[in-house]
Amino acid sequence: MGLAKGDGRTYKEQMSQPSLMDRLAILADAAKYDASCASSGTAKRTSKGGKGIGSTEGMGICHAYAPDGRCISLLKILLTNHCVFDCHYCINRKSSNVRRAKFTPQEVADLTIAFYKRNYVEGLFLSSGIVKNSSHTMEQLIETARILREEHDFRGYIHLKTIPEAEAEMVRRAGLYADRVSINVELPTVAGLTRLAPDKDVGVIEGAMGDLKSAIIEAKDARKRFKSAPRFAPAGQSTQMIVGADDASDATIVGKASALYDRFRLRRVYYSAFSPIPDASAVLPLQRPPLIREHRLYQSDWLMRFYGFAPGEVQQAADDAGMLPLDIDPKLAWALKFRDRFPVDVNRAPKEALLRVPGLGTRAVGAILAARRQRRLRLEDVAKLTVSVAKIRPFIVAADWRPILLTDRADLKALVAPKRTEQLELFAA
């Protein structure tokens, strides 16, 4: 790429920059630790009819995830990895000895359009380190989205990671261009945030999340009254918590996530397993937590969002130290602790009880409810709706099946637990 015209940099500054591909490698790698980049819930926009570029439906954003839950469908980069903050757990903290790079808003917009046209990516996830100050950085993020929307008429997906310390009006402006806006709470406890991110304040973070919630509600109300009212972050807001950087238990994390959902109407809470970084602070753990712990937290999140579990019930699946078991999923762990709730009759039980049966997902429960209106279900009928009927048998009653004493067996966990396999890490060397 040649020297950019009118970008405000001197000839010497432009010549000293790494090449475009070098910067892309640096800033894409720096962004990989951010998990909150899924695209569900956005407004439907399309470029059919010859107007605009991109789409959020059909062949637009796909929900592709890596084995550890990270979305890999977007161009996911930082505007810069320069940062004036010194969060202990962050590879881009100001005291870190990493190679630095930065993009201009125009360069990120050009990259997004070029990659989209080549079918490499189907949207943009943009975050940034804090350069100069929070408001200046937020202005650069917004300008990137503005160029895409207004100059390129880009109608694909945009997710902006906003900066809570920036001026409130800037965060609101971001929602006018982005499908989703997210503000990271970083850590599950105030004590952890104070110790590991001394430049951040929980009151400022939650205040910005509250302002964003209000702006989303106001925009939805306006859209009901006036069709011409602008869309504002139609895919809502999300957040992310780092798991394993402090001593917060899974029960604490589950409770924090539930409170965030209730207070700020979040679309998602994402979890990111802490990863050791070069030249790490002495206050950080030497080893990363197992990625399966992150997976168990995602499963607990689904139990609360789609299976009717209260936060306290999910926390009951944890051990005395508040940690969810790693060898079995939290739904099975809860069922093993509360065996008096089972077996459940698949021909008579209400939906709420069926959703608690280990091995039965929401689709399977829906199919059972529909099928039993026609006839009484046998065990083989249920087996057709699930991956493993062996896991389900101790917890259900069917027309031709009753577990008798199976549910009370001391070795029940060994009978229903999946065989242990080694989990591959996405970013392992």
From TrEMBL:
Residues 73-300 form the Elp3/MiaA/NifB-like radical SAM core domain. The keyword Metal-binding applies. Keywords: Iron, Iron-sulfur, Metal-binding, S-adenosyl-L-methionine. It holds the Pfam family Radical_SAM. GO terms for molecular function: catalytic activity; iron-sulfur cluster binding; metal ion binding. SUPFAM superfamilies: Radical SAM enzymes, RuvA domain 2-like. Its cofactor is [4Fe-4S] cluster. NCBIfam families: rSAM_link_UDG. This is Putative DNA modification/repair radical SAM protein.
